[in-house]
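Session log. Operator J.P. requested a structure for one protein chain; no other inputs attached. Running the standard single-chain path with token output.
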Amino acid sequence: MLRTLPIAPVITALRHLPGHVAADLVNVMHLRAFRRGSVLFDQGEEPRAVFFVETGRVKWHKVSEDGNEQILQVAEPGQAVGLVALLDRKPYIAGATAVEDVSAWVLSLADFDRMVARHPVLALQVMQLLGDGVRWLLEHVHAMSHRNAHERVASVLIRKAEAAENGERVIPLTHQEIAHLAGMARETVSRVLADFQRRGAVRLTRNAVVLLDATRFWAPEERRKLG
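Structure written below.
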């Protein structure tokens, strides 16, 4: 379910654009709300728009022929999903689903074409966002293929930690979401997280993981090797 929201003063993902370009974009974009579990677009669907996340989180996920889901990325405020469609105009290579209540700016492909013709700087901004996404994916693939289970989970936790109002560093992901991002079974992730809690690296809560001391992700002998 979605609904149109009042216009916000800034499009976070495109905040570096000149003011007059951002003002033009606001006139053709819509800030919409998606409730948790709502689908922004499905894998294989013909592309119609790109979504710039303003609040909340969106999982970008791919489903294999045998029905297994792999989360490619969890897009957060300031990031976008559906950008590849701006380049190749082919069906979305993965689906996008709100993992919590989300607001996102929606830019149709037709309006993007018109805006780029009028403001070429927009194309440069989108290319930068695409570049950031490709860089993240390459680093993610490299990390996941060269690290053991503890290192892979630690990488996800460090990357996804965010500051809470009480000053704690919180990873607002379920064990299943961490497992998808780490490319591992949920049971393995739960065992690793339990080990991290015993080491004093994290505290496990019902819906999140609290990061206490990242140095304790490594066993004492490993920490001595690191100096």
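Operator note: The domain at 2-144 is CATH 2.60.120.10 (Jelly Rolls).
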